[in-house]
Sequence to fold (235 residues):
Amino acid sequence: MDKTIPENITTVLENIGAACDRTGRDRAEVTLIAVSKTKPLPMLQEAYEYGIRDFGENRVQELVSKAGRLPDDIRWHMIGHLQRNKVKYIVDKVYMIHSVDSLRLAEEISLEAVKKQVTVKILMEVNIAGEASKFGIQDTESAIALVRAVSLLPGIQIRGLMTVAPYTDNSEDNRQYFRNLKQLSVDIMRENIDNVNMNVLSMGMSGDYITAVEEGASHVRVGTGIFGDRIYNSI
Ligand SMILES: *Cc1c(COP(=O)(O)O)cnc(C)c1O
Fold:
């Protein structure tokens, strides 16, 4: 029989704790984001009641709709590819946007943030394995250049980096990618750019979050491992 949501959360938190212990990290450095995309409200509610306060969604409409119906103390993380024409719907609803991969998108976030008089925390999305199918910046030089440009925009705070590592059955395959993302954050910090910090490393999903924590993740994004398989209604 399938495990319940509280049981799954307990397991994930135990695994995160053990990975922290193994690597001498403080458990408090790691935030579990429950990725609730496609899942119905009652399931989110169950996770909320069990203590989850960070939820990840990848579609604007779904995030806005769920945010309107669940408690105000939830931190909503936008983790999916974001279109510029949808930015205006979420700047004042999200806790952090993980998926900023272009200056044009950052400019739009800045514009809407200033309009709504909020400051938006963002992460730069890095395509750390250089996969053709993925979004994100691909090399150190362009990452630093983009961070520099975005750091000058009002209404935005760069908090770190995010990556979606390749899908794999063996999380060890992704260890080097997580290391590379960590190293990139160190390289960017060394540039000493005003208004930029690299405290957040959003990496690791259901298949590889333990490895990601061992390599320095501050935020892991776990969907299937908490809520079970996603069923997409195909058209
Ligand atoms: C769906 C998704 C996740 C969660 O994936 P699982 O494998 O279900 O844990 C994490 N990050 C992003 C960006 C996603 O789109």
Observations:
- The longest strand covers residues 156-162.
